[in-house]
Write a structure and sequence with these properties.
Strand order of the largest sheet: 9-10-11-14-15-16-17-18-19-20
CATH class of the largest domain: Mainly Beta
Number of helices: 9
Helix content: 25-40%
Structural class: alpha+beta
Radius of gyration: 39 Å
Length: 468
């Protein structure tokens, strides 16, 4: 049998690589990059410019969590993080915003605290946070440094410039060379350590000669007015322009102190400051209101095995607070909407049940949640009823029970089912519908749901008052 050709081997290797790449892409897309487990910790910064949601939280270069949320609170940036379950943070840890390299992504660095201190609990806030570097302040400091450099170079130019300075440099280099030669003669030749030391001294003297020569060139260029520093020292026009710029800055500062112009009014006029604070307060209230509202859109389909029909739900969940929500929705039931009519025949009154298969049913419920338990009630499939939901495993699994359509001549409509989160927005469900029905409507069912949070609806609904 012929051996596999080189082309076939290369093709087989590429095929295996594509299969592995596709599988890893599917796993990454399925799992996501956010942390699912951990406990929440927050910290407040004066400025978080450049820091983004899902940024890394590290300690000693090791990732221990991720940024979950960044929002404005009392004029500062409140950063909510999720820390890995196995990591304990002392109460006196320090949080700082760092950058990978010069232009890299920003992350939060946690500086360890004192060993033996108590640990932060879930939901608590880190008390100490380092401020980010202020580049404007850095530029101001750089200006002062340049002024000092100018003074130093001027002094060097006066000291080393001219023929006398160059002669002094040559004399220093000559003396160093002579000293190294005398030492070389005084040391025993077979002593390797002394020989190595003398060699190093000789090399150092050569490097010093080069350094002094370069320094002489620099000071000479400054004296001739070459380069930026030379022009600054020798060119009077540049100095005049710098003085005019400083004078203009002084004039602007005086006008601001006198309350002239927009900035001056902002600094000195209390009424302007008050109006600005009120405007910022209104913006803060609007942002807070928008962050409070969360809206979720859900489509849910159920296949009724005993009836061989498909039942569909379309819901909108409005959540103004973490523990309060409203549900609005429509339901299509292939069995139709049930109505009871009383028919009198021969003096005998009987109740006849009819089903309108062309109509839609409606949901309008309000709910309250306590930790993992939620109660809701209102209109369920166009009749009064109540429901209860119990959440487990960080809301990935939910068990629900509903009771509605109560009547004296029939059993209520009871329904029990469970939901499991398969992917980020996809859920599987299974349960038993109308399981005590007297009319043969009981049926096991299985189905799926597609749920996602809608920010557009959330900001649209912030124009209405927040429920109290």
């Amino acid at each position: 049998m012929n051996s596999i050709s080189t082309e076939a081997k290369v093709g087989l290797f590429i095929l295996v690589g594509l299969v592995i790449l596709g599988y890893m892409s599917f796993k990454v897309g399925q799992t996501g990059f956010g942390m699912r487990k951990g406990y929440p910790i927050s910290v407040s910064f004066d400025n978080v410019a450049g820091l983004k949601k899902d940024a890394s939280v590290q300690m000693a270069g090791v990732e221990i969590g991720r940024v979950e949320e960044i929002r404005l609170q009392d004029g500062k940036a409140l950063v909510s993080m999720k820390i890995s379950p196995g990591v304990n943070l002392e109460r006196d840890v320090v949080a700082a915003i760092k950058t990978h390299g010069i232009l890299g992504d920003k992350y939060i660095e946690i500086i360890p605290g004192t060993k033996g201190e108590a640990y932060l609990k879930s939901g608590e806030q880190i008390a100490r946070a380092e401020r980010q570097a202020d580049f404007d302040k850095l530029l101001n400091e750089l200006t002062y440094v340049m002024t000092d450099i100018r003074k130093v170079t001027t002094s060097l130019g006066n000291t080393l410039g001219g023929e006398e300075g160059e002669a002094n440099l040559r004399k220093i280099v000559t003396n160093v060379r002579d000293l190294s030669d005398h030492l070389n003669q005084a040391v025993v030749r077979n002593d390797e350590k002394f020989a190595e030391m003398i060699s190093n001294l000789r090399n150092a003297s050569v490097e010093m000669e080069k350094t002094f020569a370069s320094l002489s060139d620099i000071t000479g260029g400054i004296n001739r007015g070459e380069g930026t520093v030379g022009k600054l020292v020798k060119n009077p026009d540049i100095a005049d322009r710098l003085n005019k710029t400083l004078a203009s800055l002084q004039s602007i500062s005086d006008k601001i102190n006198e309350g002239k112009g927009t900035i001056g009014k902002l600094v000195n006029d209390e009424e302007t400051v008050k109006n600005l604070n009120e405007s910022l307060g209104g913006i803060n209230r609007y942002v807070t209101k928008a962050e409070q509202f969360r809206t979720f859109v859900n489509y849910h389909g159920e296949y009724l095995f005993d009836k061989s029909n498909f039942k569909s739900y379309l819901d909108l969940k409005i959540q103004p607070k973490e523990d309060r929500f409203y549900l609005l929705g429509v339901v299509y039931d292939p069995r139709g909407r049930r109505t009871d009519k009383e028919i009198t025949t021969g003096g005998v009154t009987t109740t006849q049940t009819e089903y309108d298969k062309g109509g839609l049913l409606f949901d309008a419920q309000l709910g309250k949640r306590w930790k993992d338990l939620a109660l809701r009630g209102g209109l369920l499939e166009s009749t009064g009823g109540v429901g209860v939901d119990y959440y487990m495993f960080n809301d990935k699994f939910k068990f629900s029970f509903e009771a509605f359509d109560f009547g004296s001549d029939r059993n209520p409509h009871l329904k029990a089912w469970a939901d499991y989160q398969l992917f980020k927005h996809v859920y599987l469900s299974a349960g038993w519908d109308d399981f005590i029905s007297r009319h043969g409507n009981a049926s096991l069912f299985g189905g799926f749901s597609i749920r996602f949070e809608d920010d557009d609806l959330k900001y649209l609904m912030t124009t209405t008052p927040i429920p109290k």
